[in-house]
Amino acid sequence: MSRNAEVASLLEEFADLLEAKDVEYKPRAYRRAAENIRGHPAAVEHLAVEGEDGVKEIDGVGDAIASKVVEYFETGGIEELDELRNDLPVDMAALTSVEGVGPKSVGTLYDALGITTLDELEEAAESGEIQDVEGFGETTEANIREGIAFAREAHERELLGEARPYGDRVREFLAGVDAAAEVELAGSIRRWRPTIGDVDVLVGSDDADAVVAAFANWDAADTVIEAGESKASLRVDDFRVDLRVVAENEFGAALQYFTGSKDHNVRLRNRAIDRDLKMNEYGIFDVSEVDDPDAGQRVGERVGGATEAEMYEALDLPWIPPELREDRGEVAAAADGALPELLETGDVRGDLHTHTEWSDGGNTIREMAEGAAAFGHDYLAITDHATGPGMVGGVGLSDADLREQIGEIRAVDDEVDIDLFAGVEANVGADGSISVADDVLETLDVVVASPHVSLDGDGTDRLVSAVEHPEVDVLGHPTGRLRNQRDGLDVDIDRLAEAAATEAVALEVNSDPRRLDIDGSLVKPAVEAGATIAIDTDAHQPGTLEYVRYGVHTARRGWTEADDVLNARDTDGVREFLGL
Ligand code: DGT
Ligand code: CA
Ligand code: CA
Ligand code: ZN
């Protein structure tokens, strides 16, 4: 963890503890500072050497926070934070990982029942003590009971957005090892699943010992879990990384096998059997002349296995991109020559859902615009939150604020090398209503409507109503799902996608790794029903515009082509879709 991230999480803990004690405004300032410090390109440790003025160079960091950062680097602690911790000795991170339990509830539950840990929270929820605490009630208690189960499971699988950078680092490291002839990620991380159990990496080499030895000595490794002749496992921060080393001429077979998914491989193996072929991690073999195909791993005449393409070719199939290997009809489509020509990250030309400091983002409109231009986008929509249910702490914009912001967006648009769209992220109420006045919506270029509250049960009617609103252009994170936290709304995707296609509303693939909503299993039917997809990052700072790759690969898991994607169009094409 870089020290910027370390300082950021301390400030976030500070914010949580202040909020738990009902302190107003300050928590938001601490969170904003934390976010900016985390995303700051220079090491805060170096800035702190120059004292408070150095640290104040970072946006959103004023005197009070700067002095705490300096104190931290000088003394290794922050006295005021320690005092807050003493006053409220709770496991804040664990407790707030429960859906519906925020820092304020943690404070209230500690005062009323002395709850400090997840176990204690569970006990209290199960014995019915929580419903009697002021402000809680039976429904909240039931929600907490359910949320605890989720929170306990949460850290068993890591978010793609957290795991993938480790995967990239592992691959880069191994690519620099002389004995490694070929290196590729495998398993769920190569298929870009939204959550990852462990990071699998495969090396083709004629010197497995040397590869395993280099891997086991990798600087980044915290622990070597095991190291054998041709495989090894490491722990790197929270991640388990599994390496397998195979012979170069069997690399393709192993890569195909260890990429999975299991269901995809079963489908292929059946196709192989129909053709008198035997496939496994060592190759693909013609066993038509063999009495007992199960007599060994490498029986029969080998027909391929050095490359993955050879494995598919032996089955009369074109190579199938890893994101499609989920047994959603890809083998049949490949056999029919009907695989999609998948969207690429480079096809995306802009972002239609981003935030600034006008609501809960960390940066100005201009900074976001310049960040998007530097990232290579042609256009950017600024879509700050409107007020409404689910917007805590007054972060959302009123209709009057929105009118004022449009003027500011137009002014910045005249000065930057990128086209700006003035937008809003409105809330979709439990009844499907949109939380911004129609005359304001009409003035905006783009209206993203997203559900933020009541994210239980069937949401189809509600989402269809939102889509049918004449001013809505994009349905943001449609199900409201949060990975490892809550499942979000159930949705009849065929009905929603048909409505979206008819109304010319794009369904969002939200690229934030915590969301990845809608995901591949929903994108595929949506695209088939003719709906347009928007790949948005929901960025709250310029640095997270690069999360777009997670959205793109998620859309690829749903068979998305560039033609299906609103923001793969040029500015004029987007303007046309938006009716501008
Ligand atoms: P994960 O790690 O839970 O996110 O998911 P995967 O898909 O990476 O699963 P993992 O790491 O257990 O194994 C990597 C791949 O290896 C998996 O996608 C398919 C293949 N594989 C592993 N074990 C078996 C097995 O027992 N049978 C078959 N057919 N394939 C397997
Ligand atoms: Ca894996
Ligand atoms: Ca594995
Ligand atoms: Zn948003």
TrEMBL record:
Catalytic activity, EC: 2.7.7.7, 4.2.99.18
Presence of keyword Acetylation: no
GO cellular component assignments: cytosol
Gene Ontology biological-process annotations: DNA repair
Keyword Coiled coil (UniProt): no
Domain (Polymerase/histidinol phosphatase N-terminal) ranges: 350-430
Domain DNA-directed DNA polymerase X, residue spans: 1-326
InterPro entries: DNA-dir_DNA_pol_X, DNA_pol_lamdba_lyase_dom_sf, DNA_Pol_thumb_sf, DNA_pol_X_beta-like, HHH_MUS81, Hlx-hairpin-Hlx_DNA-bd_motif, NT_sf, PHP_dom
CDD domains named in the record: NT_POLXc, PHP_PolX
Ranges of residues in domain Helix-hairpin-helix DNA-binding motif class: 53-72, 93-112, 128-147
Signal peptide: none
Cofactor requirements of the protein: Mg(2+)
Reaction catalysis annotation: a 5'-end 2'-deoxyribose-2'-deoxyribonucleotide-DNA = (2E,4S)-4-hydroxypenten-2-al-5-phosphate + a 5'-end 5'-phospho-2'-deoxyribonucleoside-DNA + H(+); 2'-deoxyribonucleotide-(2'-deoxyribose 5'-phosphate)-2'-deoxyribonucleotide-DNA = a 3'-end 2'-deoxyribonucleotide-(2,3-dehydro-2,3-deoxyribose 5'-phosphate)-DNA + a 5'-end 5'-phospho-2'-deoxyribonucleoside-DNA + H(+); DNA(n) + a 2'-deoxyribonucleoside 5'-triphosphate = DNA(n+1) + diphosphate
A GO molecular-function annotation: class I DNA-(apurinic or apyrimidinic site) endonuclease activity
Family matches, as Gene3D superfamilies: 5' to 3' exonuclease, C-terminal subdomain, Beta Polymerase, domain 2, DNA polymerase beta, N-terminal domain-like, DNA polymerase, thumb domain, Metal-dependent hydrolases
Record's keyword terms, sorted: DNA damage, DNA repair, DNA replication, DNA synthesis, DNA-directed DNA polymerase, Methylation, Nucleotidyltransferase, Sodium, Transferase, Ubl conjugation
Subcellular location: Cytoplasm
Function: Repair polymerase that plays a key role in base-excision repair. During this process, the damaged base is excised by specific DNA glycosylases, the DNA backbone is nicked at the abasic site by an apurinic/apyrimidic (AP) endonuclease, and POLB removes 5'-deoxyribose-phosphate from the preincised AP site acting as a 5'-deoxyribose-phosphate lyase (5'-dRP lyase); through its DNA polymerase activity, it adds one nucleotide to the 3' end of the arising single-nucleotide gap.
Protein name as catalogued: DNA polymerase beta
Organism: Halorientalis regularis
